[in-house]
Write a structure and sequence with these properties.
Strand 11 and strand 12 form a beta hairpin. By secondary structure, the protein is an alpha+beta fold. The longest helix is centred in the first third of the chain and has 43 residues.
Length: about 475
């Protein structure tokens, strides 16, 4: 026993000596590094001018790298007289094969769109798709060479206070560069007023103005954190039609990427729709009104209900809730939990496609289909099979966008595949068939082959006379 204790005592002593040696070595290493850093600091410490020069060079380099991918957008829209109205804005190339991102309002209602590149070459631009709900549009040019691009950053990682660099063409002054900071995130400031807005703005004090719209807001790495979209000024700020002073707002790059990708794939955005107006409260989302014969009304929701959960997800804010609805599949059922009279209730609501008016698209006011059947239709498009639960890639026909009459036998979202046994693959074929029957007055009713969430069936519809 004594020998064991003696051995342990010797071992403990050896470990203590080794521990002291290790600590001493680490201490010497730290002192050595500290002295080296200290000496280096005394001999290589930058002056204030050198430090400012380094920051300045960083901004200059971002501008040099980014400017070749910035484009000027020149659009022409038909005025009331035979002349065309010219409008200029900005954009940037985000794919080497010529895809350009800009604002929807820059090219709205334009019949001619041109893109002016950094080398002053001008290309006719094709409108790939536009989305008034987010103010994003995608253009395409065919250039003979691979084009420079700007990468999209993850806007979730953007922090308030970081540098922001805006590049665009204000007042036709091409490739103007301004610098500021990110002043805020997650801003939502535009009212719906007829169309549903999906907003996630980055606020900046980097100077932007008329002509900057559609241009990029960059971080110090030259990555796009947003598309410059609008300026907000206090009502009492003196301003002219040309100069607007105030905070600038850019659509977040994550939202831009999502919309741009869908526009390239499908040419348009298909969104889910409930048919309610709402406001945010401390409890959740309070329903202010319910549109008759729209999904929320048909599903049992009422004015005054407070929505607290959507498909099992707790409601955090109204913008997020609107995005959830928009991303819901058309024809699918969503579980909506509400508070009504102090009690929780769950409703199953079948989501519909957002009507053209709320999506900012032109509303058809005169057509044979509208006159004879009381419906507005559109052609079946690429991407519909992804957004509609009951459609497949093999389906052909026309989609019912809106049914004018209450309790229409042809509800919104129905796919019409044939009339009286004749296959229909476009709105033109539908119109031509109805026009012919209308002129000849041969029929008082027609039989439609349709497909909806209820499956495939035949519907007999009386023609208006």
């Amino acid at each position: 026993m004594a020998d064991i204790q003696k051995g342990l005592s010797i071992l403990k002593g050896d470990l203590m000596k080794k521990n002291i040696f290790v600590r001493s070595s680490l201490l010497l290493l730290v002192v050595s590094v500290s002295v080296t850093i200290s000496c280096s600091g005394r001999t290589q410490h930058p002056t204030d001018v050198e430090l400012l020069g380094s920051i300045e060079n960083a901004f200059v380099n971002v501008a040099k790298r980014s400017t070749p991918a910035i484009v000027g957008i020149i659009s022409f829209r038909q005025a009331e007289d035979p002349r065309f109205r010219r409008q200029e804005g900005s954009g940037f190339i985000f794919r080497e094969d010529g895809y350009i991102l800009t604002n929807e309002h820059v090219i709205r209602n334009s019949t001619i769109i041109r893109a002016r590149l950094h080398d002053e070459s001008v290309y006719e631009a094709e409108l790939v798709g536009e989305d008034p709900n987010t103010d994003v549009a995608v253009l395409k040019i065919d250039a003979p060479e691979v084009l420079p691009v700007l990468p999209l950053a993850n806007s979730e990682a953007v922090q308030v206070g970081q540098f922001a660099i805006a590049i665009g063409n204000p007042f036709q002054l091409n490739h103007t560069v301004t610098i500021g900071t990110v002043s805020g995130k997650g801003r939502s400031l535009l009212p719906d007023r007829g169309i549903v807005r999906y907003q996630d703005f980055i606020q900046t004090d980097a100077w932007i103005n008329v002509g900057n719209s559609g241009g990029p807001l960059l971080n110090i790495h030259g990555e796009v954190i947003g598309i410059n979209s609008l300026i907000r000024r206090p009502d009492n700020t003196p301003a002219t039609n040309a100069v607007r002073a105030g905070a600038g707002f850019a659509i977040s790059s994550n939202l831009v990427k999502k919309i741009g990708t869908q526009l390239i794939a499908n040419g348009r955005i298909i969104r889910g729709f409930l048919g309610i107006s709402m406001r945010e409260t401390s409890e959740g989302i309070r329903i202010r009104s319910v549109v008759k014969d729209m999904p929320a009304h048909l599903g049992g929701l009422q004015r005054g209900d407070v929505i607290v959960a959507y498909n099992g997800e707790k409601i955090r804010d109204m913008n997020e809730f609107k995005m959830w609805i928009a991303d819901s599949q058309v024809g699918g059922e969503s579980k909506i939990k509400v508070l009504r009279g102090g009690h929780e209730r769950i409703f199953n609501v079948t989501v519909a496609e957002m009507p053209a008016q709320q999506a900012g698209r032109p509303v058809e006011t005169d057509s044979v289909a509208l006159h004879e059947l009381g419906i507005r239709v559109r052609k079946l498009e690429k991407g519909d099979a992804e957004r509609y639960t009951y459609l497949t890639e093999d389906d052909r026909g026309v989609i019912v966008l809106d049914a004018v009459q209450v309790n229409s036998p042809i509800p919104r979202g129905t796919l019409i595949t044939a009339i009286n046994g004749q296959r229909i693959t476009s709105t033109q074929e539908l119109e031509a068939f109805l026009q012919k029957k209308q002129e000849l007055q041969e029929l008082n009713e027609i039989i439609l082959d349709v497909k909806s969430r209820h499956g495939t069936e035949k519907i007999t519809v009386p023609l208006k006379r």
